[in-house]
Automatic annotation (TrEMBL), chains A, B:
Homodimer and heterodimers. It holds the Pfam family CASP_dom. Keywords: Cell membrane, Membrane, Transmembrane, Transmembrane helix. This is CASP-like protein.
């Protein structure tokens, strides 16, 4: 059985998950450097979503790492389906959070606030992109299980 | 060959497309009632995306209407694939536009501006939802062609 690079349990998937964890942590960090974010709904939403994405990606990167190093690939369609749906929902949520943050940041720029929020939005977009990639790779892999 | 309700060329698909056209026109209308929107990037983005969604949905609703009334269903996988990818991209774009509009509107509410932008964002969300539904129905239908 040939392994599709990027599907659950491969080293490409491990690097996608590591990227998601790093970018979403960076987005959360840039947002939370001070407590000012609390006054904007969009920023609170971003913090909530990133707080969901980080444990999800971290857990799946551990699963990938286990699967890569112990050479024990996962082939249960049930687990795959849960992972695909989870990735899917989180990818929509992180796109929504990134867009609302970007919209609000663009508005605040006129009021001459710092570019930290821009960085946070950019990180959230990167995290969304990697999450979508994971989801598509797993979806592509599903019929061959 | 059983017809999946919601796939291209059925009456359910026609009503989905009509809904998309109506909601995206409403979003565009609420946004453009005056020219104030021009000063916010998020609102310009919404207007651009809705300007793309309206002709797309209108064209496909005409295709559906033709296919329903002339009883000549479409069965080319190539056309189906173009429709799925188009729906997909437009669904992401309209989610992004709706979220950034909602984020900016929420911020402007503190400055006591009117709820017209809120209505526009809500219409954009409905349009996104219907567009996603169309895309999923067509994707589900694709393997049986």
């Amino acid at each position: 059985m040939d392994e599709l690079p990027g599907a659950l349990g491969t080293s490409a998937s491990l690097s996608l998950r590591m990227g998601q964890t790093i970018f979403s942590s960076a987005a959360l960090l840039f947002m939370c450097l001070d407590v000012e974010f609390y006054s904007y709904t969009a920023f609170c939403f971003l913090v909530t979503v990133m707080g969901l994405v980080i444990p999800w990606s971290l857990t799946l990167s551990l699963v990938d790492a286990y699967s890569v190093f112990v050479k024990c690939p996962l082939h249960q369609p049930g687990i795959m389906l849960v992972v695909i749906i989870g990735d899917w929902v989180l990818s929509f949520l992180s796109l929504a959070a990134a867009c609302s943050t970007a919209g609000v940041t663009d508005l605040l720029l006129n009021a001459r606030l710092c570019g930290r929020y821009q960085l946070s939005a950019a990180m959230a977009f990167l995290s969304w992109f990697l999450s979508l990639a994971s989801s598509l790779f797993n979806l592509w892999r599903l019929p061959s299980l």
